[in-house]
Amino acid sequence: MKTLVLTLALLTALLGSAFAQNVLRTAALRTEPRSEPRTGRPAQSGGLLTVLRGTPSSQSEPARRRSSGNCDSRAGRWSGSVLQVNWPVLLGWPTEEVERVVRVRRAPAGEATARFGLKAGLSVASFRGSDVQEGFTSVLGANGGLTADFSLSDNFSFHPELLYSQKGAKVDQTYSDELLGLPVSLRLSGPVRLHYLDLPLLLRARTNGFFVEAGPQLGYLLAQKSTITTAVTITVPGTPPMTESETQTDTSLDGLRRLDVGYVLGVGYQLPQGLEVALRYNGGLTNLDNDPDRNARTKARNSAFQVQLGYAFGGGR
After folding, report:
1. Domain's final residue, options 106, 134, 155
2. What confidence score (pLDDT) does residue 225 get?
3. Distance between CA 246 and CA 294 in Å, rounded?
4. What phi, psi does 2 have (nearest 5°)?
5. Could you give the angle at the alpha carbon of 50 between the alpha carbons of 49 and 53, nearest 5°?
6. 227 pLDDT more than 80
7. Count of structural domains, the chain
8. What pTM was computed for the model?
9. Contact predicate 77/90, CB 8 Å
10. 153, 193, 205, 273 - which has most CB atoms within 10 Å?
């Protein structure tokens, strides 16, 4: 029991001696006397004791230099009449390790929580639905616009975009019939291009540069252009087939739904410099046909695969 008491007393004495020496060394930096106010407590000139670095004093810089006597050290410094102590140094902790931990646990000063950028790419679009007949194939289009990325955490962000997007399909259909006992074929061919302003509202999850994204999308039909060639071929026995064709261009929006509701699913990779490449699927949930008679509406929706190249100002996350 006596041995334990003596050991504790010795340890207490050693710790007290080391602490007192550090405090005395810090106090010795004072080059002129300071008088404490008679209120029984120190004058408040800059706030509380701080860790690693003292908070700036509310005094002016010349006044601080006069009151501190140009005193400063790694272990502590005077701010007015308040001694600001660097506790890690005073207690012998490894300062570099403490600063490293603080940097990891605390977001760097001035780190942007929102980043903006641009993107552009190609779309391979077509129509999908129970009423979409054979003879509709994909059409190539373009897409591009503005992007934003609002950080929610280290691995998640809200990622809205405002994009111009070309969709549609290519028509290539042939019908056969008879006219006055003669075989007749009718062929319709040409692209149908729909021009949308899309607003995808995505949740993006990322790790090590790779990301996945998903969310709803609202689209507004700005214009459409259909260039359809109609070719009629009549075959008379003993003579070569006779073909007449005519090309018509239609830009009317009558009968088409202007607001398109859909969804987006995508994957991609972003470099630390902000450059990214993405592949996504863009699917429609509403029919293109806006016939007042719901039973007469054609069940056809937009469908598009998109390859995009983008750049985020300020670098990637």
Report:
1. 106
2. 95
3. 32
4. -65, -40
5. 135
6. yes
7. 2
8. 0.63
9. no
10. 193
H helical segments located in the chain: 2-27, 61-68, 87-90, 95-105
CA-based end-to-end distance of the chain: 60
Answer yes or no: do 121 and 218 share one domain.
yes
Place of tokens 């990637």: 316
Total length of the chain? 317
141 located within any domain: yes
What does the angle CA 109 – CA 110 – CA 111 come to, to the nearest 5 degrees? Answer: 95
In angstroms, the CA 105 to CA 164 distance is: 40
Backbone torsion region of residue 111, taken as left when φ is above 0, otherwise alpha when ψ lies between -120 and 50, otherwise beta:
beta
CA distance 258 to 219: 8
Listing DSSP states for 247-290 in one string gives: EEEE---TTB-SEEEEEEEEEEEE-TTSEEEEEEEEEE-S-SB-
Confirm if 42 and 82 have CB atoms less than 8 A apart: yes
Which pair of structure tokens corresponds to residue 295? 């039973």
CATH for 162: 2.40.160.20
For 172, the token pair is 């290539």
Using alpha carbons only, what angle is made at residue 133 by residues 132 and 134, rounded to the nearest 5 degrees? 130
pLDDT band at 182; cut points 50, 70, 90 = confident
Closest residue by Cα to residue 79 from 95, 57, 60: 57
| Angstrom distances, CA of residue 133 to CA of 171, 187, 299, 301 | 10, 14, 10, 13
pLDDT per residue over 24-42, tens digit each? 454 554 444 444 444 444 4
How confident is the model at residue 315, as a pLDDT?
A: 82
Distance, in Å, from the CA atom of 126 to the CA atom of 145, rounded to the nearest integer, reads 21
CA gap 52, 98 in Å, rounded: 8
Q: State the average pLDDT over residues 94-112.
A: 50
Closest C-alpha among 177, 161, 170, 163 to residue 229: 170
